[in-house]
Design brief:
Blueprint (H helix, E strand, L loop, with lengths): L2 E3 L8 H8 L1 E6 L4 E6 L2 E6 L2 E8 L4 H8 L2 E6 L5 H9 L7 H5 L3 E3 L5 E3 L4 E12 L9 H6 L8 E12 L1
Antiparallel strand pairs: 1-10, 2-3, 2-6, 4-5, 5-10, 6-9, 7-8, 9-10
Amino acid sequence: MMKELNVSELTDNLFDAIGKEWMLVTAGTPEKFNTMTASWGGTGVLWGKPVAFVFIRPERYTYEFIEAGETLTLSFLGADHKDVHKVCGSTSGRTTDKVKAAGLHPFFTSDGNVSFEEARLVLECRKLYADDLREERFVDTSLVGRWYGEHGGFHRMYVVAIEHVWVR
């Protein structure tokens, strides 16, 4: 059972949670949703709100769900779930039931957003701003060759308000 915390009560090192543990970014409705593994993002305060920011490539199936809706969840399963992240980061929800393949069990928040029973921490978020990364805006141009081109298109950055924090 998940309990709600005030965002100011979070004690997680979110650098480690995002960068080492990784997260599932999930968007859609209880009837149709998709999830994907992500390890790029962050948290902070912007426009007087606690926010997270995530980066999603347009070729990812989850991108379509994020674009179509107003909300998404960021779910942290713990470092012992790398097998789930492998499935959710290497297969497409267009052709595979990733939830079944990864052995996940969806749960739905009171606001109708999707996360997973396996999550130890869930950030339930509402989109505030989106913008595409563009090659001409890179100050450190070495990043373009390292992360783009054959690796895929430029990410879209989403700034999302953290509306609810759920913990196990």
